[in-house]
Design brief:
Blueprint lengths: L10 H18 L30 H15 L5 H14 L2 H13 L1 H9 L1 H7 L10 E5 L4 E6 L8 H4 L4 H4 L1 H9 L1 H7 L9 E6 L5 E5 L11 H7 L2 H5 L10 H5 L4
Parallel strand pairs: 1-4, 2-3
Helix pairs in contact: 1-2, 4-5, 4-11, 5-6, 9-10
Length: 257
């Protein structure tokens, strides 16, 4: 994870203090962190402090960190190795890998053809593969076809290209409704499709995982692969979003009252 000792309360120190901090906050009923927030959105005790506050996470996060602390203290896991794994999934294995695949396909017709023919091999050309990505199938969104990926049994997901699955992807509601009423689900994600657009739902399994190749947005003809990759989102590669065109300079300048 790469946090330095100077970055507030360190992860290891937090693991040792979290339980005590949570208990103290619960027992006194006082807000922990920046302070209780009033109707104006400002802190209700904005006087200066010379000590750091500790933000207590939600219950599940606290349990995970407490368990990690115990395992570390009992020397059942190595903190350095754990940090390496966490860093891999937070910074090296994730949607940015999939975005590189999409950007290459948008920029290189030959690569796109290979990607659609043999997703596993083409993705491996860029150095991405391994556990949870052994058998990849890439499906292309077009003006007449929109693809949506789900795992109806659990949460099978292509980790090497998309990282860890989002919470909503694993929810029972998404897993059932994506198959039964995909257009309604897409509408709730903000994707409105014309009636003539065909919706294809792909059910990932332990044997095969799917990746959506989204449509390339207008106004990107002059962009290089790195710039294109910046536009690609995780949700667009699952199929619950479109890739937005790049913001214009005027829009980037913004402003207004």
């Amino acid at each position: 994870m790469g946090h330095s000792e100077s970055e507030g309360v360190g992860r290891r120190k937090f693991l040792k203090d979290a339980a005590a901090g949570a208990a103290g906050a619960t027992g006194t009923g006082m807000a922990v962190g920046a302070g209780a927030v009033g109707a104006t959105g400002h802190s209700m005790h904005e006087h200066e402090h010379n000590h750091d506050h500790q933000v207590v996470p939600d219950d599940i996060a606290l349990r995970v960190r407490a368990l990690e602390s115990i395992l570390v203290e009992k020397e059942m896991i190595d903190p350095a190795q754990l940090d390496t794994v966490v860093d891999a999934y937070e910074n090296r294995i994730g949607p940015r890998n999939g975005a590189e695949v999409v950007a290459r396909a948008w920029s290189n017709p030959d690569y796109k053809a290979r990607l659609l023919e043999d997703g596993t091999a083409a993705i491996a050309e860029l150095g991405f593969g391994g556990a949870q990505g052994e058998h990849m199938v890439v499906v292309e969104n077009t003006a007449t076809v929109h693809n949506l990926v789900v795992c109806t049994l659990c949460s099978c997901y292509p980790w090497p290209t998309l990282g860890l699955p989002p919470v909503w992807y694993k929810s029972a509601a998404y897993r059932s409704r994506a198959v039964i009423e995909p257009r309604s689900v897409l509408r709730e994600f903000g994707v409105e499709l014309d009636g003539e657009v065909e919706v294809r739902v792909w059910d990932s399994t332990a044997e095969v995982r799917y990746l959506v190749l989204p449509e390339r947005p207008a106004g990107t003809d002059g962009l290089g692969e790195a710039e294109l990759a910046e536009l690609v989102t995780r949700d667009s590669m699952i199929g619950v979003a479109r890739v937005a065109p790049p913001a214009t300079e005027a829009a980037g300048a913004g402003g207004g009252a």
